[in-house]
Automatic annotation (TrEMBL):
Alphabetized UniProt keyword annotations: Oxidoreductase
Enzyme class: oxidoreductase
Enzyme Commission number: 1.-.-.-
Species this chain originates from: Amycolatopsis halotolerans
Classification via InterPro entries: ADH-like_N, ER, GroES-like_sf, NAD(P)-bd_dom_sf, Quin_OxRdtase/zeta-crystal_CS, YIM1/Zinc_Alcohol_DH_Fams
Name of the protein: NADP-dependent oxidoreductase
Pfam family, one: ADH_N
Domain of life: Bacteria
């Protein structure tokens, strides 16, 4: 089978296609014939070495996949089942590939309402948003929720989850994404290039941060007493956490994991028509370098996906 691999760290041009033996599933695992691969900004940072999660090359990037079970050494699936997930994260899943061997427990059935492209785009961003808003944030009906980066991968799913939970949702995004973000259900959109959110927002129960940097500290002032900031980006900065605690607020960092129960909850929202996945652009497998150039540029609207075969 073909994989996308790299022999050295660097720009998108280091990504090359190689032929390797197909992986063999172990008992409790399946072999998935991959139809689509979702890309995430993290993978660009692994590719160029900024974040050495997979160590030194050669390695194969990728976690988010959707495809068809070809071999099942498990009672959970049968050959022909359509599945998707983010297996093995944060260990290497070698998912930039035509086939992936994965624990059956890390995959769920693909709903008919999602194409393979849409399903491959969902797991990492969907589970990050779910774990941030539901598991950590405990968002419930009537809460005021502020979502930073509302037009991006995590943000666009988070807005829809928060709305499905009955929250009042405020999102930051650039003006060009206003219509998109309002279409996802955001009650208020703040153009971060023109307006400082910390001057116009208040009494927030939960902030979901996808930006890091000074956005985290500036969000402290918009929380109501006892409010909770959940970030997908900031490191466990003990001084910052202490500042939140001293102010009577809570601070949590998300480390997303491949929780199949939560992934099924996301499938439920999709089936109820409460969650859709926006794919900004798809690229064929062979054009992975162009897809990574888009990741490197930032300012994504929804997701970027590779199609296979
Ligand atoms: N901790 C974890 O487990 C975990 C899991 C998933 C993702 N992450 C991290 O979370 C971050 C977001 O991921 P993602 O997939 O959502 O990225 P993404 O798709 O690139 O989205 C980021 C969004 O933020 C917007 N943005 C940039 N600067 C902004 C600002 N100052 N204010 C408001 N919006 C701004 C961008 O577009 P515009 O500038 O055009 O508005 C873009 O839409 C990444 O750093 C990723 O690595 C962490």
């Amino acid at each position: 089978m073909r994989v996308i691999t790299q022999q050295k760290l660097g720009g998108p041009e280091v990504l090359t296609i190689a032929d390797v033996p197909e992986p063999r599933p172990l008992p409790t695992e399946v072999l998935v014939r991959v139809k689509a691969i979702g890309l995430n900004p993290l993978e660009a940072r692994l590719r160029d070495g900024e974040f050495p999660l997979l160590g030194q090359p050669p390695f194969v990037l990728g976690w988010d996949v959707s495809g068809v079970v070809e071999e099942a050494l498990t009672w959970r699936f049968r050959p022909g089942d359509e599945v998707f997930g983010m297996p093995l994260f944060p260990r290497a899943a070698n998912a930039y590939a035509e086939a992936v061997a994965a624990p059956a427990l890390h995959l769920v059935r693909k709903p008919e309402k999602l194409s393979h492209v849409e399903a491959a785009a969902l797991p990492i961003v969907g589970l990050t948003a779910w774990q941030g808003l539901v598991d950590l944030g405990g968002v419930s009906a009537g809460d005021r929720v502020l979502i930073h980066g509302g037009g991006g991968g995590v943000g666009h799913v988070a807005i829809q989850i928060a709305k499905a939970l009955g929250a009042h949702v405020i999102a930051t995004a650039s003006e060009s994404k206003r219509e998109f973000v309002e279409g996802l259900g955001a009650d208020e959109v703040i153009d971060y290039k023109k307006v400082d959110f910390s001057e116009v927002v208040s009494e927030i129960d939960v902030v979901l941060d996808t930006l890091g940097g000074d956005t985290v500290e500036r969000s402290l002032g918009v929380l109501r007493p006892g409010g909770h900031l959940v970030t997908a980006v900031a490191d466990e900065d003990t001084a910052l956490i202490a500042k939140f605690e001293a102010a009577g607020m809570r601070f949590s960092g998300i480390g997303v994991d491949p929780d199949p129960v939560a992934l099924r909850q996301l499938v439920g929202l999709v089936e109820q028509g409460k969650l859709r996945v926006h794919v900004q652009e798809t690229f064929p497998f062979e054009r992975v370098a162009d897809a990574h150039r888009l990741l490197d540029g930032g300012h994504l609207q929804g997701k970027v996906v590779l199609t296979v075969g």
